Amino acid sequence: MLIDERAWTVMGPEERVEAVVGMLVDRRARSASTAIGLGRGEVEEIVRDQPAAVGGGYRRFLELVGGGVGLFLEGSDVFHPHVLGLRQAADELLVENGIPVALAPADRVILMHQGYCFDFLRGTGPDPEVWTYTEVHQYPVTPFRSAPTFTDWLRTNAEEHLGFEAAAHRRDRRS
User: Fold this and answer.
1) Distance, CA of 35 to CA of 62 (rounded, Å)
2) pLDDT one-digit tens code per residue, 31-75
3) In the chain, fewer beta carbons within 10 Å around the N or the C end?
4) For residue 79, which of 89, 65, 90 has the smallest C-alpha distance?
């Protein structure tokens, strides 16, 4: 089930997250998964783990699927409890690699992949940009903006997971 573009543009961040989660758990889809949401205490544990505030979109993500949803983002630390400590791990990776860029106090690390790549929210607000740092695939090795908003990042990852070609098409249009 693709999300209608016109509907996407008028949705708020929380509604966008709900729409993407709906794609992942759509019982009509062959790849349907069960969502494991987090309780208030678990969400607050994640909020306290990093120095930045949590926007509405990311908070809704944690509430709905913060414990995982099938094989979505398998192999990456993005779900509770693995998301705990990612900020410190990301800071250490930057120092270890001699990268002259530090995460800002408002940055929140939301995903780490096998210790060499991480995604983080940059900025404040309900649906901030997503930036990526990776040791590979670019030169010079510095963080770069990978999605205009958290909900766009989430949608692209979900569509790629589900095999939708629309994600690649949309990414090409933004480049």
Assistant:
1) 11
2) 667 889 999 999 999 999 998 889 999 999 999 999 999 889 999
3) C
4) 65
- In whole angstroms, what is the distance from residue 26 CA to residue 3 CA? 12
pLDDT digits (tens, 9 = 90+) for 71-97: 899 999 999 999 999 999 999 999 998
Best CA proximity match to 63, nearest among 124, 9, 14: 14
Residues making up the chain, counted from first to last: 175
Residue (of 167, 124, 154) closest to 175 by Cα position: 167
pTM of this structure: 0.86
Q: At 97, which amino acid appears?
A: N
> What is the spatial distance between Cα 59 and Cα 111, in angstroms, rounded to a whole number?
14
